[in-house]
Amino acid sequence: MKKHLLFGALCCLSACSQSPQDSQQLEPKLVPAEFFRGQLQAFGVMHNWQGKQNLHFQAQLCGQWRGQQGDLYEIFQFSDGRTDKRHWQLQVSADGQIRGRAEDVSGEATGWTAGNTMYWQYVLQIPQQDGSLDVTVKDWLYLVTPQQLLNRSTLHKFGLTVGELTLSIQQQDAAADCSAFIARYQQTERSPVTD
């Protein structure tokens, strides 16, 4: 028992983390170019730094791929009436590394895929009335069925967790054309956070 407690304490102190090897054998296999293709729908909740739910939201997504390069368009509707959107430009390499860029992400998102899991990290610019707030996002995505994925994200500022997001994404039509969605995306305006 003491050994288990000691190991747990050491893990906390040394910031034990998952690696691609931990998920390599888990099924179903998450292949971004297959799951994030066509029309998808998402639902989620946001929790503040105290763990209290402060928002819920739904999102529509559409993805299109050319080999291992993809474009994923997202439109979010929040329970406070706010609208947000994101266009990810994605690149997946043969060894499972994934990279992405988006208009509200500073620099490049980087991570990996293995088995049913994808992890990546990036700095997100959250629009405010007087500019933007930069937070580091750590995303863990788990494919639980071929068409359903769970996403747990933590948001960090100055090394402290300032929020959490839990999200469910369902693939609705992998063969859907994204042209109409992209036109809608281009006409959608982002809303700033007001409080």
Would you give the CATH topology? Lipocalin
Radius of gyration, whole Å: 17 Å
CATH homology-level superfamily: Calycin beta-barrel core domain
* Helix-strand pattern: HHHEEEEEEEEEEH
How many separate domains make up the residues?
1
Percentage of residues in strands:
over 45%
Q: Give the structural class.
A: alpha+beta
Helical residue percent band: 10-25%
User: Which consecutive residue ranges, at least 5 long each, have pLDDT under 50?
Assistant: 1-16
Number of helices: 4
General shape: globular
Compute the separation of the termini in Å.
46 Å
CATH class: Mainly Beta
- For the largest beta sheet, what order do the strands appear in spatially? 1-2-3-4-5-6-7-8-9-10
Q: Which second-level CATH architecture applies?
A: Beta Barrel
Mean of residue pLDDT values: 89
Number of strands: 10
Largest sheet, described in full?
Answer: 10 strands, antiparallel, barrel
